[in-house]
Amino acid sequence: MPGSEIVAKIKQKQIADLISQGTRADGRGLTDYRKIAIQLEPIAKAEGSALVSLGNTKVMTGVKIEMGSPFPDTPDEGVLTVNAELLPLASPTFEPGPPDERSVELARVVDRGIRESKAIDVEKLCLIPGKKVFVVFADVYILDYDGNLFDASSIATLSALLKAQIPEYEVRDGEIYLKESKVPLPMRSRPVSVTMAKIGGKLVVDPSIDEEQVMDARVTMAIDENGNLCAIQKGGIGTLTRADVISAMQIALEKSEEIRKKIAEAVELGQN
Amino acid sequence: MSILFERRQLVTPGELLAEGDYISGDNVYRDGDKLYATRIGLADKSEKTVFVVAIKGCFIPLPGDFVVGKVVDVGLSGWTVDINSPYEAMLMASEAFERFNPRRNDLTDFLDVGDVIAAKVLAGDRARSPLLTIRDIGLGKISRGRMMTIDASKIPRLIGKKGSMINLLKRETGCQITIGQNGIILISGRSSENEDLAVLAISKIEEEAHLTGLTDRVAELLRTEKEKRRSQNVTAETSGKAN
Amino acid sequence: MLLPKRPERLIDENGLRLDGRHEEELRPIKLEVGFLEKADGSAYIEQGKSKVLAAVYGPREAHPKHLALPDRARLRCRYHMAPFSTQERKSPAPSRREVELSKVAEEALHPVVFTEYYPRTCIDIFMEVLQSDAGTRCAGITAASLALADAGIPIRDLISACAAGKIDGRIVLDLDDREDQAGQADLPLALMGTRGEITLLQMDGILTPEEFEKAVDLAIKGCQKINELQREALRRKYSVAKEEAEEEKEEK
């Protein structure tokens, strides 16, 4: 895999030792997130956009909405496509080129969180059943990699979708006429993902880049506002015990609520 | 302290073999006070060491090993040799002949890509390419014979106790058989039928290396096969005569 | 993932599913070790109508050289579906799904491989889905684990994998394609057979925390059953010769 860096053994030891004592190298508690900043609509040309910083990790999601054909097995539903780019400028370990397995995994995990929770009301995106629907493109751009791309991307994508707008339209004689006026993209749910890394037998929330390099395994869980799990992805070359999995679920249930509140503050009450 | 298997029992990776103050031998790893198998094979114990005789495994060259290899690349000062190991070996020019002058001697004059050599391992560890030499009696380029590859872990069985198995084979097939510790075998006989016989026997040994009574069964196989061919020859002669 | 036109109920009042199975029943599984000759290790699995072939090459020199790791082997895994494996022909070019599944499959198998025994080499694992009826990544991992053992690569444990899911509100084991398409959740899981640690965990769908816990436990049970089948398959391969040898002895 391109870009795997060798970690100094004393650094590994330091991180593991601190965690076993209940703290982390940057002073956080095991279940603390880094500072989250959400900037909405930085890109006026996009239908929706958001720039999120999670500690020093920076992710921008731009949403473009176009008209297109529905999938044959869902003729009266709109379409969602999520793509992610690990931009070479974001890290010395990212190389230019076609999407590698990390960016594919990232996009698909973010996609599943939104899709399975039915966050977008895709039935309301149908223009002419079987022929024309709105297609929502969410492009996740990683600008600065300092750990936990999953959560940063998922916050950025949800925020961008919540601010996205679609044109109002009329259908006359089988033709679609778009109006000048716009309405918000119809959203039904606000899924939030929480990523935890397993280090020295303990679970830590929102791993930093150093923690990701020494972790045994990570698990990302997406939770909707009803407390249901809608997407889960374990990653990393280590293992989880059954107890880890249940613990992770409990932590995710709690922390997703906090994150959801932060997103609501930004979206409903203006920038933060 | 408990041993959880019968001697020479077939075990699979991850199977718990023993608990307690035992030493982990070949193909066994210890986690806490539990010992597990890491490969398929026959579990056994010798005093306090629990080990598994693996049925299959790759060849890791050790200094002193006699190997048969194939040249796959020619470099500036030596050749890269495939010795059927995870690691490609190097034969430096200085280990092939006395004096090497790069301006006057072209390496490909001596060994070219595709040549087969009998060599000895000089040095090798998992971090570097193994080094070979052909500057000893019995080593060097091989120009004829049939090549066969078997799993390197079966070679000891092919040789047998004090050479009992290999001597049986040589005697019954009349072939010259050179055994590389890396699982590559060279067979050279008076006729290709004899060589076929040797190949048949060696294949059987590879498949049944982990079972008892093999020497007898191989002797039996050779006997019946030679009978078969003798009667076929007789039939051919008779029908030939009839014509 | 509900289709507008759903089939009849996926599970009836008696707890019988469309193919007649009960909630906790696995599909019929067939395992064969050493299916291929050229590969260093191989295994073939049929799980219901899903058919996957797994092969292992290695350890071997890493090519290109810059891929080599100084202190351990590099593990590469390719999950790939044959164009004829699905109802509609699938393009042979790797899809994004195959890219993701290759990654998660590698991460599911990596924890058991003693990569530090073979620095600077590559161990390649290939999973080819010949026929897909859901559960192919799990079947592939189960077969690949046998292929690693068949290749004689030292491993800490066998890995078995299985998916649990939710259909018509009920938690069931080993979804087939109809159940996966029309169901409400799919949870693939891979487990170390003896040590019980989880190496793959994914979920998509909607599950309450209680349903999630139930599904995890059910998938673990399924994996344990599959692990027994794996060990049987390995023993069968090396005991057949033993039986033949005993027969030969008796005939004399």
* Helix and strand run of chain B: EEEEEEEEEEEHEEEEHHEEHH
Strands of chain C, count: 9
Helix content of chain B: 25-40%
Oligomer state equals heterotrimer
Q: Please, what is the CATH homologous superfamily of the largest domain in chain B?
A: K Homology domain, type 1
**CATH classification, class level of chain C:** Alpha Beta
Please tell me the total number of domains of chain C.
Answer: 1
| Average pLDDT score of chain C | 90
Can you summarize the main beta sheet of chain C? Answer: 5 strands, mixed
Task: Quote the beta fraction of chain C.
Answer: 25-35%
Shape of chain B: flat
Quick synopsis:
The complex is a heterotrimer of chains A (272), B (243) and C (252). By secondary structure, chain A is α+β, with helices and mostly antiparallel strands. Helices cover 28% and strands 34% of the residues of chain A.
Kindly list the characteristics that best describe this protein.
heterotrimer; A: 272 residues; alpha+beta; Ribosomal Protein S5, domain 2; six-stranded mixed beta sheet; four-stranded antiparallel beta sheet; elongated; B: 243 residues; OB fold (Dihydrolipoamide Acetyltransferase, E2P); Ribosomal Protein S8, Chain: A, domain 1; 17 strands
Describe the structure.
The complex is a heterotrimer of chains A (272), B (243) and C (252). Chain A is of the alpha+beta class and 272 residues long. Chain A has one domain: Ribosomal Protein S5, domain 2. Chain A has helices at residues 9-20, 101-116, 149-163, 209-214, 242-269; strands spanning 36-40, 48-54, 57-68, 79-86, 126-128, 132-144, 165-172, 175-184, 192-199, 202-205, 217-223, 229-235. In chain A, the strands form three sheets. In chain A, strands 1, 2, 3, 4, 5 and 6 form a six-stranded mixed β-sheet that branches. In chain A, helix 2 crosses helix 3 (149-163). A five-stranded mixed beta barrel of chain B has the order 9-10-11-13-12. Chain B has a four-stranded antiparallel β-sheet with strand order 1-3-6-5, with no helix packed on it. In chain B, strand 10 and strand 11 form a beta hairpin. Chain B has helices at residues 107-110, 155-159, 164-173, 192-208, 214-242; strands at 2-3, 9-11, 16-19, 23-24, 28-31, 34-37, 41-46, 49-54, 66-74, 78-82, 89-92, 116-125, 128-133, 140-142, 146-149, 176-179, 184-188. Chain C has 252 residues and is α+β, with helices and mostly antiparallel strands. Chain C has a single domain, classed as GHMP Kinase, N-terminal domain (Ribosomal Protein S5, domain 2). Chain C is built from four helices and nine strands. Chain C has helices spanning 96-109, 136-150, 177-182, 209-251; strands at residues 29-33, 41-47, 50-61, 74-81, 121-131, 159-167, 170-173, 185-192, 198-207. In chain C, strands 1-2-3-5-4 form a five-stranded mixed β-sheet. A four-stranded antiparallel β-sheet of chain C has the order 7-6-8-9. In chain C, strand 8 and strand 9 form a beta hairpin. The mean pLDDT of chain C is 90.
